[in-house]
Amino acid sequence: MGKWNKGKWLFTVSALVLGLAACGQGAAEKEEGATSASGEGTQTVVVGVAPGPYGEMVTDVLGPLMEEKGFTLTTKTFNDYVQPNKALADEQIDANLFQHTAYLEKFSTDNGLDLTALGHVPTLGMGIYSKELKSLSELPEGAKVSIANDASNLARTLQLLEANELVTIADDIDETKATVNDIAENPKNFDFKELDAAQLARSIDNVDIALVPGNFSWAADLDPADALALEKLQEQYKNVVAVRTQEKDSELGQAFTEVLTSNAFKEAIAASPFKDFDQPASWNK
């Protein structure tokens, strides 16, 4: 599986936002939130992220565009999916980018938080990867297929296989909770290997295909352009920039909204390693 250089595209992106290339460098983390003056005529904004591609998207793509509007973006990385929203609500950070709309809405309701999504960003879904095969049509009888063993990723795995007509899930079950026991048809008699999601990228050497969630494929330097198939995400499962609801119409909120819906953002994404991510539905209109 080919890898690619995630840094080689920075020159192209900087050309799109002339004179702002310095903002494309990895920003230092700020330990205490709240927007503050940077001393260079802009305000420093702390964006919470989780491990994966979205910290790079903040600093390398959104950062130069937000700089034009007077905001210097830095990132603070959280190692779970709980703290970024709590830190945002507590004003320790100014925005976050790590979650999809469905998670934001449920987490906010469950925890009594008043947070709002400003707009979607391209999101990397699960992919089907192989070391040897160039097409799903090459899959042999009894192919070894590594899949996630946790409920959420397993259900998505089976839906992706079904979407590519490789298996059929029983009609009388909830597809979002499907397990291998709910496979009604397995015409090629796949030999499923259930693994921890974090181990799936490593399994590629030992199986015919591996179905790898986006964050883990990115961490393993798997190029989504090399995937035999990519998950087509529903809009509610695409990641969003979120802020406190009271900041939605603030200068910062308006700047984020304008950038996220701009042609400059689309062009910068097209020149970046994120070009093959699943794009917001509004981009296709």
Concise synopsis of the structure shown:
The chain is of the alpha/beta class. It has helices at 10-16, 54-67, 83-89, 101-111, 151-163, 214-219, 251-260, 263-270, and strands spanning 36-37, 43-49, 71-77, 95-100, 115-120, 127-129, 144-148, 168-169, 183-185, 191-195, 209-212, 229-230, 239-244. The protein is 27% helix and 20% strand.
Rg is 20 Å
Mean pLDDT: 88
Oligomer state equals: single chain
Number of strands: 13
Q: Which residue ranges are poorly predicted, with pLDDT under 50 across at least 5 consecutive positions? A: 1-34
Helix content: 25-40%
Given the helix and strand composition, which structural class is it? alpha/beta
Which sheet architecture does the biggest sheet show?
Answer: 6 strands, mixed
Beta-strand share of residues: 15-25%
N-C termini distance: 33 Å
Order of helices and strands: HEEHEHEHEEEHEEEEHEEHH
Enumerate how many helices there are, as a single number: 8
Q: What is the 3D form?
A: elongated
Overview of this protein structure:
- The protein is of the alpha/beta class and 285 residues long.
- The protein is 27% helix and 20% strand.
- It contains 8 helices and 13 strands.
- A hairpin with a 5-residue loop joins strand 1 and strand 2.
- 39% of the residues are buried.
- Mean pLDDT is 88; it is low at 1-34.
Q: How would you summarize the topology of this molecule?
A:
Layout (H helix, E strand, L loop, with lengths): L9 H7 L19 E2 L5 E7 L4 H14 L3 E7 L5 H7 L5 E6 H11 L3 E6 L6 E3 L14 E5 L2 H13 L4 E2 L13 E3 L5 E5 L13 E4 L1 H6 L9 E2 L8 E6 L6 H10 L2 H8 L15
Parallel strand pairs: 2-3, 2-4, 7-10, 7-11
Antiparallel strand pairs: 1-2, 4-13, 5-13, 6-11, 6-12, 8-9
